[in-house]
Amino acid sequence: MGEAAEQLKALSTYFPHELESNRIQLDELYAVLSAVRDGDSSVAEAIAHLSRSPRWVWTAVDPESKLLLSVQVGERTRVMAHAALHQLTQLLAPGCMPLFLSDGCRRYLTAIVTHFGHWVQPPQRQPRGPATKPRWTPLPELLYSQVVKTMRQRWLVAVKHRVVYGTQATVAQFLAACGWQINTAFVERLNLSLRQGTKARHNRR
């Protein structure tokens, strides 16, 4: 898994810069343990075991052009989420503000706001006293939605669409141009291809 991701990462460096992207899908891929495949371990237990594994692959895809914009390999941490967003922002044109779509991983939230935010000076609440400190806040035009899936006994039982930044109407209008709804299908399809094209790893304690 790591070797395949490193090859993709090297390939992504040849992509042109100053891209104009309207929508970007984000996702993380992990190696499935043999215990899960054999039914000896649940998916939740596997994710807990792999949460600090260096075998996570972070990917970002433009669903319209199908360009693979970012590939990062490492742990499932906030640092890696920041690395993925940083690599992504290096390819986008100045001022480009795409709609971000991801799963429910909370690590994306901080990374997106860090790269697509600005300092704001809050109003002075009292005429006297110390001046209020500026705060880093998301840009007003930032749009970010999540596809939150609930798994039970390795089966998908519920899917919720959550608008984190922006409004439901704005996000829907942004996607209507392509006839889409909130989803991460394209990046998930890419990650499935990565997983199927990589030999299964047999991890045993």
**End-to-end gap:** 19 Å
Number of domains: 1
- Approximately how much beta-strand content do the residues carry? 25-35%
Strand order of the largest sheet: 3-2-1-4-7-8
Query: Which overall shape is indicated by the principal axes computed on the Cα atoms?
Result: globular
* Annotation, overall tally of beta strands: 8
Keywords:
single chain; 205 residues; alpha/beta; two-stranded antiparallel ribbon; 7 helices; disordered C terminus
Q: Could you outline the blueprint of secondary structure elements for this entry?
A:
Blueprint lengths: L1 H11 L10 E7 L4 H4 L5 H8 L5 E7 L4 E8 L3 H14 L7 E4 L4 H9 L1 E4 L14 E4 L4 E10 L2 E11 L2 H9 L8 H12 L9
Parallel strand pairs: 1-4, 4-7
Antiparallel strand pairs: 1-2, 2-3, 5-6, 7-8
Explain what this protein looks like in three dimensions.
The protein is an alpha/beta fold and 205 residues long. The protein has one domain (2-119, 134-196). The protein contains 7 helices and 8 strands; from the N terminus they run αβααββαβαββββαα. Helix 4 (78-91) packs parallel to helix 5. It starts with a helix and ends in a 9-residue tail after the last helix. Mean pLDDT is 80; it is low at 199-205.
